[in-house]
Write a structure and sequence with these properties.
The structure is a single chain. The chain has 523 residues and is an alpha/beta fold. It contains 18 helices and 16 strands. α1 packs across α2, α1 packs antiparallel against α12 and α14 packs across α15. The radius of gyration is 28 Å and the shape is elongated. It starts with 8 loop residues before the first strand and ends with a helix.
């Protein structure tokens, strides 16, 4: 594999291929938001969708012209002309022209099986479909990227025919021939072998488009670039149909930091994590914590030996500097980490005591006891901070809870409502409030706020943003303990607390109370 300085262009297909992921449904407005963010980052190409396939995509191409895109080239995606039809009479080709984009990406069949069994046409007719479509668009001064769909499977089955399809697109004037591993089943050495053959057959610049069905989309893309491909296609976070597409969020730093190919400026690279999280949010798709480079756990350290080494030299357990991709280092607190973790966290909290002090031993023993009961603090750092402050006698008691109850009425009637009653004492004054909600946690949250807001108006600044439930000991069936994580947010930060109990409402209440206490503690 050859590496070094050369110009690589990136082609984002999140808005088209990525939107085909299960669970993703982007409105035209969502697509504009993502396109603007990709443009801000400096993405070279943004594929907007398939005009003519649905009204939403046509609306996008209309609205994106007003969106102020400055850096990126917008591409429309479509197929070669239909079999036995003139290009100028094909309605989907007309729709591509109506989209008015400077770039059009056309896919054609490279695999003879697809030609005969899917298109149900002759192999020669498919070659004409490719040539005539590309030539027709090039005559109109459009940049044409030809996506050779199923190229690697076609090359395995009938290499001579697969290469002919590329030659037709090249002869017609295509600006780039992108080789597609559409089924995601090709291995890196097969990518290399095929590209070496392609480079002998055509001189047009090459691109790569991989799917992740064998967990090799990023590896195959890197292999292809190493062999001379100058256009890398993929999606943000690897979103896509089935197992997803090649993840540009991994490809870009791998090329820049590992292969010595400058992709974006250091300042832009620091925006990578923000881009990754933004697109996940708009797509309403959870970003995997362990996603390389930009995941929450990408630079999280838990084992005591690891953390001890990290304190001496961060290179011992990190392959790149977190800040280089806009992420940050985290030390997790658990029974596995030992006193080193506690000391690091104490330092972050500006609490000062020695590693072998009674305080550190007391905190470690309490963490071990609670984790044995089912607690987990690595994802609930607010609960950990409150625990430490409480054990050190430095946590001010803001309120004490009295009787708390919640009931849900009309279960099974289609619109059940939960009603919560909360009694508490804050600064020597007793409060009793009731509230209803869409569920028991929502009702408890509302009643607790009502009881506290007069004493602590700052409560109005926060809102609940996430609620997760995990079963701790599933072998106990319906009597199992549950672990509840509750995430709150204000205008400055986000924090998470945890509660554990056999009763899900009790576990939720514990996490809810700590979330409020944390806000009051931090001010």
């Amino acid at each position: 594999m050859k590496t070094g300085q050369k110009k690589i262009l990136f082609y984002d297909t999140t808005l088209r291929d990525g939107s085909q992921a299960e669970g993703v449904s982007l409105s035209s407005h969502d697509k504009i938001l993502i396109a603007k963010r990709l443009d801000q980052f400096g993405m070279h190409y943004i594929e907007g969708g398939w005009p003519g396939s649905n009204p939403k995509d046509m609306e996008f191409f209309k609205e994106v012209k007003k969106a102020g895109i400055k850096r990126s080239r917008i591409a429309a995606f479509g197929a070669t002309r239909r079999a036995r039809m003139k290009v100028k009479e094909d309605s989907q080709i007309k729709a591509l022209l109506e989209a008015g984009t400077p770039v059009v990406t056309i896919f054609g069949k490279s695999w003879d099986m697809h030609v005969t069994e899917v298109f149900r046409t002759a192999l020669r007719e498919n070659l004409l479909m490719i040539h005539e479509t590309v030539a027709y668009l090039k005559d109109r001064k459009i940049e044409v990227i030809y996506d050779a769909e199923h190229f690697f499977d076609g090359f395995k089955a009938n290499p001579e025919y697969a290469l002919k399809t590329l030659q037709q697109a090249a002869q017609a004037g295509a600006d780039n021939l992108t080789l597609c591993d559409t089924n995601g089943g090709t291995l890196p050495h097969e990518i290399r072998h095929a590209i070496l053959k392609v480079k002998r057959a055509v001189k047009t610049p090459l691109g790569i488009h991989c799917h992740n069905d064998s967990e090799l989309a990023v590896a195959n893309s890197l292999q292809a670039v190493g062999e001379g491909c100058v256009l890398a296609q993929g999606t943000v976070n690897g979103f896509g149909e089935r197992c997803g597409n090649a993840n540009l969020i991994s490809i870009i730093p791998d090329l820049q930091f590992k292969m010595g190919i400058k992709c974006f400026s250091p300042a832009k690279m620091k925006e990578l994590a923000a881009l990754s999280h933004y697109v996940a949010e708009v797509c309403n798709m959870p970003l995997m914590n362990n996603q390389p480079f930009t995941g929450r756990s990408a630079f999280a350290h838990k084992g005591g030996v690891h953390i001890n080494a990290m304190e001496k030299n961060a290179r011992t357990y990190e392959h790149v500097e977190p800040k280089a991709v806009g992420n940050y280092r985290r030390y997790l607190v658990s029974e596995l980490g030992g006193k080193t973790n506690i000391m690091i966290k104490a330092k972050e909290l500006e609490l000062h005591f020695k590693k072998d002090s009674p305080e550190s031993k007391k905190i470690l023993e309490e963490i071990q006891r609670l984790e044995y009961e089912g607690y987990q603090f690595e994802a609930a750092e607010a609960s950990f901070e409150l625990l430490v402050q409480r054990l050190l006698g430095k946590l001010k008691p803001f309120f004490t809870s009295g009787a708390v109850s919640v009931r849900t009425e009309e279960i099974g009637a289609g619109n059940p409502r939960s009603i919560a009653n909360v009694k508490l004492t804050a600064q020597g004054v007793e409060h009793s409030e009731s509230a209803d909600g869409d569920g028991p946690v929502n009702a408890l949250d509302s009643a607790l706020r009502k009881a506290l807001v007069k004493t602590y108006p700052v409560i109005d600044q926060i809102h609940l943003t996430d609620y997760k439930v995990r079963v701790v000991n599933s072998e106990a069936g319906t009597a199992a303990k549950v672990r509840v994580f509750i995430e709150f947010q204000d205008e400055k930060k986000t924090w998470t607390t945890v509660g554990v109990h056999e009763n899900i409402i009790e576990a939720s209440w514990k996490a809810l109370v700590e979330a409020i206490e944390y806000k009051l503690h931090k001010g």
